[in-house]
């Protein structure tokens, strides 16, 4: 369990932060941007949960916990040294990705196929889930960029890719199973 006795440490005042393995890096590094954007995604999920109930709220709660797992995964480089670590580093697993896929498949069965792109909006929950989707896509882009520079857990990239799809389908569920989706009308304002 994590114990936080002191909130500020002054160790980041020069623009560096510590990773999970103790290494110090610039706060603007791709790795820090990657897990920082995962944290931002988590905050948007918290906002969405203000409007969520039932199964969607329960699933969002699980996603919030997963996002902390993902942040812990991304802040710990050197996967090849995991076996030598003092304690087993937390890594996203394929089972977490598969859970998202199962939930996406269930939501897909509940909505009609799309015949147009959807504009972000509709119900308050759907609008917030679209924001979650776009922020999680940014986290994915940064994590993919990081994976081109350093070793990244492949399940972490898969999780982020499925997560944005989860948010998309959940937004449709939040819009009366897609009946209240706001459809894009190409060239409508010409």
Automatic annotation (TrEMBL):
Keywords: ATP-binding, Cobalamin biosynthesis, Cytoplasm, Nucleotide-binding, Transferase
Catalytic reaction equation(s): 2 cob(II)alamin + reduced [electron-transfer flavoprotein] + 2 ATP = 2 adenosylcob(III)alamin + 2 triphosphate + oxidized [electron-transfer flavoprotein] + 3 H(+); 2 cob(II)yrinate a,c diamide + reduced [electron-transfer flavoprotein] + 2 ATP = 2 adenosylcob(III)yrinate a,c-diamide + 2 triphosphate + oxidized [electron-transfer flavoprotein] + 3 H(+)
UniProt-annotated location(s): Cytoplasm
Pathway membership, UniProt: Cofactor biosynthesis; adenosylcobalamin biosynthesis; adenosylcobalamin from cob(II)yrinate a,c-diamide: step 2/7
GO biological process: cobalamin biosynthetic process
E.C. numbers: 2.5.1.17
Domain of life: Bacteria
InterPro entries registered for this protein in UniProt: CblAdoTrfase-like, CblAdoTrfase-like_sf, PduO-typ
Record SUPFAM superfamilies: Cobalamin adenosyltransferase-like (SSF89028)
Alphabetized GO MF terms: ATP binding; corrinoid adenosyltransferase activity
Family per record: Belongs to the Cob(I)alamin adenosyltransferase family.
Classification via NCBIfam families: PduO_Nterm (TIGR00636)
Protein name as annotated: Corrinoid adenosyltransferase
Lineage: Bacteria, Pseudomonadati, Pseudomonadota, Alphaproteobacteria, Rhodobacterales
